[in-house]
């Protein structure tokens, strides 16, 4: 290779290096002149900013990435703060109370990023406004002591469309294992009963998380419900119509056998019908009417109702001659005054009354008819 060619190649190479150094030098200068970066902390919300129709019992939280909250608050349109909890690391906050229906909420506060720069906390959302709300009641009430056949009953002031959703919001906890199920007895009533009678002395807790639940057709639950109650001793009335006796079993042992008169056997309208019922109500004095059979304002004492069809266990001292001998009542179980009071004093609401040997059987139409259904019939009324 000649000397002139070697010199020209070195000149070309030197020129290329000069161009690279020039470009590199320009890049370094640009880096030094760049503007400051944005803060690294990023705040996000659930539900998202400007969300509408938010369910008031849904998750409500704020989080910050690459930083922590210095302060944060969620307030309604009246300026009242929503109760909440800030995580120990300061990176998240969540509401600890349900929100209201049809309300607007505002986020406020400040977060500081890992770079020491602050960002404001601001955002808003609104909750759904139901077309209507549904009120419910629950029985037994708190701290009640009830009999071994007592169902748990939820009653609603308007028909429930989405029964499955509501049933999934209901829980029953028991101190000992108990098999049971919910059944919808109407569009406005759901009952839970055990497959067999409750074990004596069971403690029962019920939670109905109804607030924020959609009932369907634009309706939502008005409030949550709960109750805790206890099952008492195991007392059962054995009412065998043909024996003219009413036998009381307590914890498996016979504790009483009362001379009784049941409903007239040859008149279906006066039968004491077959079936398993419960003591629904107790009144020291009951005023009775039956226009079909021509009596009004009849005063009877120590009355324990066991059917809304009109059957009671009660005193009928005027019928003393028939007690233990003849069935001639209008469907009630007549006892002497002393025996009626003794039974009345021993009875709990929810005690079962098992009527057998009658000429007719009670159809499952009258409240409470839970124990007139077989277990298969009962479970078929579940919505889930």
UniProtKB/TrEMBL annotation:
Q: Which GO terms describe its cellular component?
A: extracellular region
Q: Which PROSITE patterns match?
A: LD_TPASE, PROKAR_LIPOPROTEIN
**Mind listing the GO molecular function terms for this protein?**
acyltransferase activity; peptidoglycan L,D-transpeptidase activity
The record's listing under InterPro entries reads: Big_10, LD-transpeptidase, LD_TPept_cat_dom, Transpep_catalytic_dom
Gene Ontology biological-process entries: cell wall organization; peptidoglycan-protein cross-linking; regulation of cell shape
Q: Does the keyword Transferase apply?
A: yes
Keywords assigned by UniProt? Acyltransferase, Cell shape, Cell wall biogenesis/degradation, Lipoprotein, Peptidoglycan synthesis, Transferase
**Annotated pathway, please?**
Cell wall biogenesis; peptidoglycan biosynthesis
- The residue ranges of the L,D-TPase catalytic domain are 235-356
Please give the Gene3D superfamilies that the UniProt record associates with this protein: 2.60.40.3710, 2.60.40.3780, L,D-transpeptidase catalytic domain-like (2.40.440.10)
The record places the active site at 314, 332
Q: Does the keyword Cell wall biogenesis/degradation apply?
A: yes
* Protein known as: Lipoprotein-anchoring transpeptidase ErfK/SrfK
Phylogenetic placement of the source organism: Bacteria, Bacillati, Actinomycetota, Actinomycetes, Pseudonocardiales
């Amino acid at each position: 290779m000649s000397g002139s060619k070697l010199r020209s190649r070195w000149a070309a190479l030197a020129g290329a290096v000069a161009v690279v150094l020039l470009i590199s030098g320009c890049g370094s200068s640009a880096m030094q002149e760049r503007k400051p970066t944005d803060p690294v902390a990023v705040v996000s919300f659930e539900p998202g900013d400007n969300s509408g129709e938010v369910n008031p019992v849904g998750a409500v939280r704020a989080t910050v990435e690459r930083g922590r909250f210095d302060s944060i608050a969620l307030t309604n349109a009246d300026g009242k703060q929503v109760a909440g909890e800030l995580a120990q690391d300061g990176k998240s906050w969540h509401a600890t109370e349900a929100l209201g229906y049809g309300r607007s909420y505002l986020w406020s506060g400040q977060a500081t990023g890992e770079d020491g720069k602050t960002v404001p906390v601001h955002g808003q959302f609104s909750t759904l406004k139901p077309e209507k709300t549904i009120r419910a009641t629950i029985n037994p009430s708190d701290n009640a002591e009830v009999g071994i056949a007592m169902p748990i009953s939820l009653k609603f002031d308007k028909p429930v469309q989405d029964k499955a959703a509501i049933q999934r919001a209901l829980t029953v906890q028991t101190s000992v294992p108990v098999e049971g199920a919910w059944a919808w007895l109407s569009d406005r009533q759901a009952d839970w009963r055990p497959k067999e009678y409750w074990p004596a002395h069971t403690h029962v807790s019920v939670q109905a998380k109804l607030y924020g639940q959609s009932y369907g057709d634009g309706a939502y639950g008005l409030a949550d419900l709960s109750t805790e109650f206890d099952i008492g001793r195991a007392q059962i009335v054995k009412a065998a119509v043909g024996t003219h006796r009413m036998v009381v079993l307590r914890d498996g042992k016979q504790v009483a056998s009362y001379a009784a008169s049941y409903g007239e056997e040859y008149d279906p309208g006066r039968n004491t019908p077959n079936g398993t019922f419960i003591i629904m109500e107790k009144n020291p004095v009951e005023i009775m009417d039956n226009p079909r059979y021509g009596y009004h304002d009849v005063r009877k004492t120590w009355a324990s109702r066991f059917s809304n069809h009109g059957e009671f266990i009660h005193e009928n001292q005027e019928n003393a001659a028939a007690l233990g001998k003849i069935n001639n009542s209008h469907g009630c179980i007549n006892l002497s005054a002393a025996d009626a009071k003794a039974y009345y004093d021993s009875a709990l609401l929810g005690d079962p009354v098992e009527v057998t040997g009658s000429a007719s059987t009670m159809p499952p139409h009258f409240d409470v008819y839970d124990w007139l259904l077989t277990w298969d019939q009962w479970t078929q009324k579940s919505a889930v």
